[in-house]
């Protein structure tokens, strides 16, 4: 009967196993990783028709212009940098699951609540920025409201030391306005049915 070889103490540690799993060992592993990267990189990028590009242009212009107009004339801050990324999703790829109202509104609000909660608890230290983004992503995944601009909202909230007002304006109000503009534009102008689903 063959005796089991005893591993040195450091080889039993989680860190050692993690590093060993992450680092490709040997020429064969490096070759496999290289071929996988080159194979993925050879895929053709997504390309829209010129008509769709023009519609995305006018739709995003309309959405951001409405937010800016309402910000100036209402006295409430309804515009935030992450809404630029939201406009890309809702007007350029409105069929995407991440561009649906549940994700736009829910994901944005979850990210805003997350970052404000963490700012209230820990301040705006550098590590809080990382924690806010990671926590927002995890909560959006758990609630099926994943919305990429939510990561930017979480980061913006920490860097600006946002208060609870940040959740209502610009995030909730701005998200609602953008979704409304998208519904009107996509259904009446571009002829694309939006949304694909609400919940």
TrEMBL record:
Keywords linked to the UniProt accession: Membrane, Transmembrane, Transmembrane helix
Keyword ATP-binding recorded: no
A UniProt-annotated Pfam family: TM_HPP
InterPro entries membership: HPP, TM_HPP
Domain HPP transmembrane region: 49-195
Superkingdom of the organism of origin: Bacteria
TM ranges: 53-70, 76-93, 105-123, 166-189
Protein name: HPP family protein
